[in-house]
Each structure stands twice: as C-alpha cells, then as structure tokens.
Amino acid sequence: MPSNTRPTLVLDLDGTLADTNRDLVPVLNRVIGAEGLQPVAFADIGHIVGLGAKKMIERAYEFRGVPLGNAKLDQLFDAFLSDYEQNMAVNTVLYDGVEGALERFANAGWQLAICTNKQEAMARKLVAELGVADYFAAIAGGNTFPVRKPDPRHLTGTVEQAGGNPARTVMVGDSITDISAARAASIPVVAVDFGYSDKPIREYSPDHVISHYDELWETVARIAANWV
Known about the structure:
This protein is an alpha/beta fold. It folds into 2 domains: 8-19 and 93-224, Rossmann fold; 21-87. Helices cover 41% and strands 11% of the residues. It has helices spanning 21-33, 42-45, 53-63, 70-87, 98-107, 120-129, 152-161, 176-184, 216-224; strands at 8-11, 111-115, 136-140, 169-173, 189-192, 208-210. The relative contact order is 0.18.
C-alpha cells in the first residue's frame, strides 16, 4: 500500500469512546434478576465489558456461584441483546473531549474506525444515538469477522474496511484485549486510563497512556512522526 495512504485511528468503543457501563450493567442485572440472581456491582463486572455480553453473563453467574449451561447462556444472551437494544443510550455518554478529538483528527485527514467486541449492529446503533456515527469510515463489531479481539485479524480487518494501512495506523483502547490485539498486529497502541481495565492499564505496557482526550492529538502525532 502506498505511503501516502491516509493515516487511520482505530478506537475501541466500551470504556474508550463511551462510558457504556452506565447502561450495560443495569441491563445485565435485569436479565440475571429475572433468573433469581442478585445484582452485581460495577466494580465486580465492569472490567470485562470489552469481552462482550456473553462474558458478562458468565462472569455474573460465576460471581454468584451458580452453574450456567450453554443453552441457558444463549437464552440469556438473546434477552440481554433485546433489552440493551432498547436501553443502550439511557445513561451512556461519550467521555469528555471525545467529540473534539474526533473532529480534530477528521479535519486533519485521518480516517477513523471503531473495533469493538460489541455486536456490530449494537455498536452502529449506539454510535448513531451518541451522534458521532458520521466520523467513522468503518465500524467492526465482535461478529463482523470470524475472529474478534484479542485476535489481531479483527483489528487489521477493521483497518482494511476503512481503506487504511496497518503501517500507518494507531489503536486506542482501554484494556488488555485492545493492547494484545494491537501488539499482535504490530500497531502502536494508546491506552486510556479511565476505562474498564481489570488492572491499572500501565501494567499492560501500552505504548502510551492518556488520562483525557485532550492529550490524544499530541500523543498520536509523536507516533506518526516516526512513519516513513
């Protein structure tokens, strides 16, 4: 791919672009509550949001010490998606500075994309409801490809969908899932420290860490300065 390919910024969604736990955890608690389980707290479940709804349900059952078979998991997953589709933007908000950052990158000629383990249709709907869908050249969910993060092909497939080049791409995420995918794809990764990581994100050694989106432009510019 030619070196003049527009640079690409790929962002995770849950815990990176938007504070989706505000709606995901209440949906989870309604679904498991209908099965007689006690609700779980944000602190108990929030760090695995990036792995998708099925993992959240499994974790809730493990946390409560209740066995969960595959058939029941599939049933609860369907119930989760049905509820979440109607309630995904009740309390969810973009993190402070997100829209300004997206605007700056777009105006500077960057292609923007989302790579999330959330179901693609759900991701598209949420991004639209949050009012930022028009910024993104590609939105790839956990069911867009046969693989998903941390498999690097989810990330490189997203870049390809956006018309980008992995050699001129930066990933932004909030968890080991994002960092592992980027590392395996040889793509530099910037981590936000306010997302849903199970440990302080610096312990996973991303290339850079930011605490606010106001820091993203200069951080990415330092990475891009080394591109040929």
